[in-house]
């Protein structure tokens, strides 16, 4: 029986997943946590086989939490899930060490398939995402810029798009303000814009944040 820990800030999601998987003979939702503090506190005394980790879980963003998980609990498999666009965040989370990525718009049957695949030692991304990533970038110019971004650049852009100032971004990601400014300059260059307003408008227009 695969032991699954759900890390999601929404009680309805937690209870819904517990109810759906309750009859399963293959996996068991052993518990749910709502924040990253609760997640790491839970892991001090429990060892699930797999963590279903929400990208936008409170306190520390999902990619930062993922990095800490990989460092402190390398034996635990992590499947990231989010309502954010797959072709932006899936690549970033996989680079950061996730074993798979699935959208919150996916069916519960597909979620089960993803959990079983990741718990079995494999990676998981949807067929649709695999096709998009393999598609000729010249026909998908707006999105191709975002696939060029590093995991850390995506984190910085996400926080800036949420209205956070350099100091707040630096504190959340464990960086100094000068480094954040460097990331901002790099983002503008990679996204082919010359000011912050255009950079954030481009991200929001593409529904990336």
TrEMBL record:
PANTHER family, sorted: TWO-COMPONENT RESPONSE REGULATOR
HTH luxR-type domain ranges (all copies): 142-207
Protein name: Helix-turn-helix transcriptional regulator
Superkingdom as given in the UniProt entry: Bacteria
SUPFAM superfamilies on file: C-terminal effector domain of the bipartite response regulators, CheY-like
Response regulatory domain sequence ranges: 3-119
InterPro entries: CheY-like_superfamily, NreC/VraR/RcsB-like_REC, Sig_transdc_resp-reg_C-effctor, Sig_transdc_resp-reg_receiver, Tscrpt_reg_LuxR_C, WalR-like
Organism phylogeny: Bacteria, Pseudomonadati, Bacteroidota, Flavobacteriia, Flavobacteriales
Keywords: DNA-binding, Phosphoprotein
